[in-house]
From TrEMBL:
GO terms for molecular function: GTP binding. Belongs to the TRAFAC class TrmE-Era-EngA-EngB-Septin-like GTPase superfamily. AIG1/Toc34/Toc159-like paraseptin GTPase family. IAN subfamily. It comes from Pygocentrus nattereri. The keyword Coiled coil applies. Residues 60-244 form the AIG1-type G domain. This is AIG1-type G domain-containing protein. Gene3D superfamilies: P-loop containing nucleotide triphosphate hydrolases.
């Protein structure tokens, strides 16, 4: 038999009329009727609105962040009941969230949901942003998707433009920050600028009302950024999470105590918000845009450095082959030997995650300007790496770019070549044409003179190779410098620069900076690495377990696909990709140096 309210107030009866009963209780559980809309066509960002919205309504907007199982859903509904004026004695409970039945191994939901609750009586509204799905068994792809959905929410015309609080949800029973939680906090906090720190608070669930000593100590140990009170304690609020449970007379006092603790904490929380200045997300959006561009630049620079190192290996091997076959070449200019050539090829993307199925690449530079996570834009012009119609990675106009399911990859191939072909590829062909007249030498040169001429040409080619190697190394060091500047800029803009993803860049860069011999740079990067790994040790562990390598999988699939595609190529196509190293990289580093000089002028 349904539990009925005989003395319900008019506002309470109005709420009941605008909801559907889920359970007879007590308390009687209702689901509020909401107007639902998708802010993104695939339904990854959704907005549920309850109540009539009026002009000039006062609003509070909060972002909820926490691991699945911390009681975030109950906490959201608790805030809704408090905001709507529901009391323990009313013996009702309203829910705005909706449980979705999924496998136990999955998070309950994967979409970013904005709950907007409007109170006509208070002439105010409450907006709660829920970010579920972090740290679930579906891995890094899903977590990255949520971060990008938040980005979209902040950019959307009817999305969220300001925040009053970021609430990190933890259980009172834990005495350490788990790898998953550390990763969650790193992922979300890395989205924000430094100005957001003084509105980050802790919501501690499943509490008995006592001091949450263990949790607070864990927060201090892990150096999780958050607001602190006058006693230098992290600002926190306690919740029991029993408000919606079916009540029995024997434990009536327990449920009442739980309700009163929650109501008191939320009241204190709203009082706290009065002392804080609402934060505009303009800086956050700027951080997100800048971070996307910088990460694309760093990824491109990494590929350029690796390709430059491959060309270095190619040139060194050619030098060794010349020395090894010197006598044979002097005797016979047509003597052939095998060289390995590094080149770039554009192939179909196979096996990539949905976020990385399309790439923005430059046809002129043969550069993947935005390779991973390039899903937001409908065309190259709208890609996140474009700014004022120019690419922030290669500095070319957007019209030279395409966005498609193909990308450039580094390849190696073996070629049978003669000395004459090596001269054409690596030597100064103009000088050779001016100093070497085949028709004249045919009649007058003796075998001895031909041998001397060949030695002279080999010496010229060896010098040319040495110059190319020196030039190549200078350009590689310039690329290392550009990468260093980009990572430093990342560390200076984001609230959490020491994310697990940034560590990956540091691990790549440090050995190359050490080789370049820049002591100051090396020390700065090592300090960043040490601090980052100390604060993200558990997150890195989680990342290594969960990350099945969407990039590696995509590259592996692409490599397999490319092997099938490279069965035959004409000589012009073969040499074009390799010759690109002597022209493309020179222009690339020049453009990148100009870009970073302008973009990071304050560094």
């Amino acid at each position: 038999m349904a539990y009925r309210l005989n003395d319900a107030s008019s506002p309470l009866n109005d709420l009941i009329k605008k909801s559907q009963m889920l359970h007879p209780g007590p308390p009687v559980r209702y689901c509020l009727y909401t107007t639902r809309s998708d802010l993104e066509k695939d339904g990854k960002i959704r907005k549920w609105t309850f109540g009539q919205k009026y002009a000039n309504m006062k609003n509070k907007t909060i972002l909820m962040v926490g691991e699945t199982g911390t009681g975030k859903t109950t906490l959201i509904n608790t805030m809704v009941n408090y905001f709507l004026g529901v009391n323990f004695e009313d013996k009702v409970w309203f829910e705005i969230t909706e449980e979705e039945k999924r496998a136990q191994t999955e998070s309950q939901t994967s979409e970013v949901t904005v709950y907007e609750i409007n109170s006509e009586e208070k002439r105010s509204s409450l907006t709660i942003i829920d970010t579920p799905g972090y740290g679930d068994t579906r891995g890094i792809d899903k977590d990255t998707e949520i971060a990008r959905n938040l980005h979209e929410l902040f950019l959307h015309g009817t999305g969220v433009k300001d925040l009053d609080a970021v609430c990190l949800v933890l259980k009172a029973s834990q005495n350490r920050i788990s790898g998953i939680q550390r990763y969650i906090f790193e992922s979300v906090l890395s989205l924000f600028g430094k100005d957001i720190e003084d509105i980050i608070v802790l919501f501690i669930t499943h509490s008995d009302g006592g001091p949450p000593t263990n949790v607070l100590q864990a927060i201090k140990t892990e150096k999780v950024p958050c607001c602190h009170d006058d006693e230098n304690e992290p600002v926190h609020f306690l919740f029991n999470n029993r408000q919606s449970e079916e009540r029995t007379k024997r434990y009536e006092y327990v449920y009442k105590s739980s309700w009163e603790m929650a109501a008191g904490s939320i009241g204190e929380f709203f009082e706290f918000l009065k002392s804080r200045q609402r934060k505009s997300l303009n800086m956050t959006v700027s951080v997100l845009n800048e971070r996307t561009q910088l990460e694309a630049c760093v990824e491109s620079l990494k590929k350029s450095i690796k390709f430059r190192e491959a060309k270095q290996k190619e040139l060194t091997e050619v030098q060794d082959l010349l020395k090894l076959n010197k006598e044979m070449i002097e005797k016979d200019e047509k003597f052939t030997f095998t060289v390995k050539i590094a080149y770039k090829e554009k192939i179909n993307i196979i096996g990539a995650s949905w976020q990385s199925k399309k790439v923005t690449s430059c046809k002129e530079c043969e550069e993947n300007c935005h390779e991973y996570g390039c899903w937001l834009a409908t065309n190259a012009k709208k890609c996140e790496v474009m700014e004022d119609n120019y690419c922030t990675v290669c500095m070319c106009h957007y019209s030279t770019h395409v966005r498609e399911g193909r990308k450039y990859v580094e390849r190696w191939r073996e070629e049978r070549v003669t000395f004459a072909q090596l001269k054409k590829k690596y030597g100064n062909t103009d000088e050779e044409k001016a100093s070497y007249d085949k028709s004249a030498l045919k009649h007058v040169e003796t075998g001895h003179r031909q041998s001397l001429k060949m030695r002279e040409q080999m010496t010229k080619l060896e010098n040319s190779l040495k110059n190319l190697l020196d030039k190549n190394e200078v350009e590689r060091k310039s690329l290392v410098k550009d990468t260093y500047v980009a990572i430093v800029k990342l560390s200076e803009t984001a609230l959490k620069p020491d994310s697990a993803f940034t560590i990956q860049y540091l691990d790549f860069l440090i050995p190359r900076v050490e080789e370049a011999g820049s002591a100051d740079w090396l020390q700065k990067l090592k300090n960043m690495q040490r601090e980052a790994k100390a604060s993200t040790k558990s997150a890195v562990g989680y990342l290594s377990r969960m990350n099945k390598g969407p990039q590696k999988a995509a590259d592996k699939a692409s490599t397999n696909s490319a092997a099938e595609l490279t069965s035959s190529r004409n000589e012009g196509t073969q040499t074009a990709a390799a010759e690109e190293a002597t022209s493309y990289e020179v222009g690339h580093v020049r453009r990148m140096r100009h870009f970073f000089t302008e973009f990071f002028q304050n560094i």
